[in-house]
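Hi again,

Forgot to attach this to my earlier email, sorry! This is the prediction with flavin-adenine dinucleotide bound. I've pasted everything inline since the attachment limit keeps bouncing my files.
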Amino acid sequence: MMNYDVIIIGGGPGGYVAAIKSANAGKKTVLIEKEELGGTCLNWGCIPTKSLLRNAEIVRSLSEGEKFGFSIDRIKLDYEKAYLRSREVSAQLVNGISYLMKKNKVTVVKDTAKFIGKKEILLTGSKERLTGEHIIVAVGSKPFHLPILDYSKPNVLDSKKALQLKRAPRSITIIGAGAIGMEFATIFQSYGAQVHIVEMLPRILPNEDEDISTLMEKEMCRKGLKIYTGTKLISVENNKNVVKVKFEKDGNPFTLESEMILTATGVCPNTKDLNLEKVGFITDNRGYIEVDKRMHTSIRDVYAIGDVTGKLTLAHTASAQAMCVVNNICCKCGDELNYDNIPRCTYTVPELASVGLTEAKAREKGYDVETAVFPLSANGKAISYGDDTGSVKLIFEKKYGQFLGIHMAGVHVTEMIWGAAAYLKMEMTVDEMTQVVHPHPTVSEVIMEAAHIANGEPIHI
Ligand code: FAD
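Structure tokens for the complex follow:
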């Protein structure tokens, strides 16, 4: 039986960051990963989608040649090359994590872990047992499957299968208009697919501020996406080469036919085989492990981080939770995480980035809410770049001008949301935000311009 100071189960952005921090703090650390280091994020999530989206961006730019003064007679698109590039990018980053584990003297074990006691783990492959003073569960999540569909069919996809396609579909119906569904829609549409995107809720990107999600819907429809909101899936008929899906909107049935169907209707936690109930973990009715603000589970000295906690299922949430937990293990400093300060990004065209409260949430919380809106069409860098679509909406409280949240659609907004997250963390007022000098010309100036409007002193509008 091997004993460790810290055992970490799962090598995604939660688990591997926890491992580096823990080993760096001098703890004898083991990381158990049953598949590849990097987890969903590096292998089947954030990274391969962004690689394919970069290809999609280049394809779109080439099709805009006339605007920039060049013409190309015929562009030959090779989706397989885009796919191969996405796998190379993932592999490069996964190798990088392997290197970091060695450099930081983390013991990595390739096996499947299972609890056999509150502080005791069984490796189901080697049958070895490990005990740990502290255990961090970072097992992540997998795509949720709709029971109505048979995912063993080649034309029925979840996000992982979609990332393994070697050719773009000619047509595809995507169920779910959250970030993942919209990103796949952007990729496949750029490669010529006819894309239908269906959402049960009344609007796309339903967790985002209503005005920004409305703007996104308008822009994406303008680019040719067929979007059906407030629409319920009724039945699916899958012949070899065509999927016929029956939907209902406002009581009216209709059918969409496409070559493939992709569901992007959320994720579910990887907790099934961990034996959690037997050792006394409290999970919610969907199987997510319940944790407090410091990621303690119901078992002393056992923590959970990342998607398996069902908080804000994003890679940087997992990493932030990891750092919080290890700080608390090492120095008992009582670190807590405020999920309201975590940015959210969707890498579509236009991009969407937000942090803090939406207007509706701020009202719900009882704030006397005001908003300030600045369009990208008044921003020099966006105009010079050739894409001034989009807008920024700043949410603040009326009496003291406290900054509560920001919601942006437009080019490069995912690269600048961290700045707004810093303002939020520092609990700035809109007046203080105007005093931060933003470089010119940058798209980031839109944040400062919106703060000027909020402060009652608009400049470039
Ligand atoms: P994971 O990354 O899922 O890692 C968990 C690891 O645990 C896995 O490697 C798994 O093999 C391992 N494991 C599970 N059970 C066991 C066991 N019993 N024993 C040993 N190992 C085990 N987030 C963003 O922030 N930005 C994005 O742009 C983004 N894009 C995404 C696109 C897609 C298509 C998808 C599906 C997700 C995307 N996400 C994105 C979400 C992001 O990937 C996850 O939030 C993140 O990977 C969660 O990290 P994690 O460490 O909790 O779990």
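The chain has three domains: 2-142+268-339, 156-265, 350-454. The first strand starts at residue 2 and ends at 9.

That should be everything now.

G.
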